[in-house]
């Protein structure tokens, strides 16, 4: 086998060799046509690891024939940037590929940005983080294209694997390898749209397979062992992880049990139990709320059980909690009410606390005008308990109506009580 990794050797040499990402650089796109016509704009490529950001940069360099320099923002300093600038003065326009661009510091920016703006340097930045959150606006403003790459499809990965198996110059085409179409499909399934993992796994499987009479014999057991060892899930704290959390909550809110289980499975395979349980607790109160108040206690119990059990057993109580939330009645009225109150306060809709609600547990409170509070428990109201008609809000915001009940589940009863009490107050 060759010294360079298969994933490195199989990088596309031109944009016509790029597999997948047709929405970004397919023949029908404006970017493809610009590059073919000799114009390469500065751009940001955003997406999960292993889906082609570096490969696309290499392919653009190969097609445009521009001098290509690659840096990583986590390890490069101002001197490295100055060397790129010096290179552009000697050779003319340079294509700079900057990985982890969201870590670009101010000194690097100051040295590089004027040359990007003048067109002497074409900047292709790559990041796994959302560029609208994590990339400096100065960088974004100089990149005419911000492209989000997608995970490669199963068919894309199969195509990459077949290309690697047949390519005699860069791939494994010079080796006799006995590997079935079903095994190629299984490798594609086991790498979750990550091209680098797929090619690395293929090479590792071939190298680890038994060699008989000059032929590598790939066994199903070896394929499964490698899939388990390499793993298929992404960075715990990258954008993809937070997208999974978002998708889980939106699936629960949308009452889709199957989708919620799918995203929960992805999250648990990442292994960050704390982040998952925290989000589930938020969901119980944000999305189920007063429609089914018992869900909050149920989810808390499930999260506590999960913490005590640890993975993989933690999946059992968490799956139950997610299923219950999906199929429960839903209301966001309580959290919308507190948000409305907070917004009103920040806007300045405030007033003085009514005198009868102020503290009277000290000598002199009466002289300040405090007092006159009526104790509701002394005035029973049917089966409701105690209630008395008195003002609780400051007079300046007396008519505020932050809470808007949702007529769902248990909140139907709460809504009825709320409206009845409002009607009592209107009789004053």
UniProtKB/TrEMBL annotation:
Origin: domain of life: Bacteria
Pfam families, sorted: AAA, AAA_assoc_2, MgsA_C
Molecular function GO labels: ATP binding; ATP hydrolysis activity; DNA binding; enzyme activator activity; single-stranded DNA helicase activity
Keywords: ATP-binding, Nucleotide-binding
Alphabetical GO biological process terms: DNA synthesis involved in DNA repair; DNA-templated DNA replication
Keyword Acetylation attributed: no
Residues making up the signal peptide according to the UniProt record: none
The keyword ATP-binding belongs to this UniProt entry's keyword annotation: yes
SMART domains recorded: AAA (SM00382)
Protein family membership: Belongs to the AAA ATPase family. RarA/MGS1/WRNIP1 subfamily.
Name of this protein: Replication-associated recombination protein A
């Amino acid at each position: 086998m060759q010294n360079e990794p298969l994933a490195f050797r199989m990088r596309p040499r031109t944009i016509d060799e790029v597999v997948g990402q047709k929405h970004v650089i397919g023949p029908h796109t404006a970017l493809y046509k610009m590059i073919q016509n000799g114009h390469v704009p500065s751009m940001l490529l955003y997406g999960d690891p292993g889906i082609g950001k570096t490969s696309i940069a290499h392919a653009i360099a190969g097609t445009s024939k521009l001098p290509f320099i690659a840096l990583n923002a986590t390890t490069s300093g101002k001197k490295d940037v100055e060397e790129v600038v010096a290179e552009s003065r000697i050779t003319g326009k340079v294509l700079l590929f900057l990985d982890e661009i969201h870590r670009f510091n101010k000194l690097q920016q100051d040295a590089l940005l004027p040359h990007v703006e003048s067109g002497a340097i074409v900047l292709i930045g790559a990041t796994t983080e959302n560029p609208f959150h994590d990339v400096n606006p100065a960088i974004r403003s100089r990149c005419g294209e911000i492209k989000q790459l997608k995970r490669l499809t199963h068919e894309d990965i199969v195509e990459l694997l077949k290309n690697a198996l047949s390519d005699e110059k860069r791939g494994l085409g010079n080796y006799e390898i006995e590997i079935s179409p079903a095994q190629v499909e299984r490798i594609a399934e086991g790498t979750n749209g990550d091209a680098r993992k797929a090619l690395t796994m293929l090479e590792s499987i071939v190298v680890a397979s038994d060699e008989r009479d000059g032929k590598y014999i790939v066994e199903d057991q070896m394929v499964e062992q490698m899939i388990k060892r390499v793993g298929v899930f992404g960075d715990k704290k990258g954008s993809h992880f937070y997208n999974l959390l978002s998708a889980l909550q939106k699936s629960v809110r949308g009452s889709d049990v199957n989708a919620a289980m799918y995203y929960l499975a992805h999250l648990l395979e990442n292994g960050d139990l704390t982040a998952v349980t925290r989000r589930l607790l938020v969901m119980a109160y944000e999305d189920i709320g007063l429609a089914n108040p018992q869900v909050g206690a149920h989810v808390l119990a499930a999260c506590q059980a999960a913490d005590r059990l640890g993975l993989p057993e933690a999946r059992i109580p968490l799956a139950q909690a997610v299923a219950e939330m999906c199929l429960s009645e839903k209301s966001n009225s309580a959290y919308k009410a507190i948000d409305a109150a907070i917004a009103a306060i920040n806007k300045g809709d405030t007033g003085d606390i009514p005198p009868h609600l102020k503290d009277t547990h000290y000598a002199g409170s009466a002289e300040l005008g405090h007092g006159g509070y009526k104790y509701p428990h002394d005035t029973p109201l049917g089966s409701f308990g105690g209630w008395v008609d008195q003002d609780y809000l400051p007079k300046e915001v007396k008519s505020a109506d932050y809470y808007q009940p949702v007529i769902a589940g248990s909140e139907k009863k709460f809504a009825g009580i709320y409206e009845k009490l409002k009607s009592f107050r209107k009789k004053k």
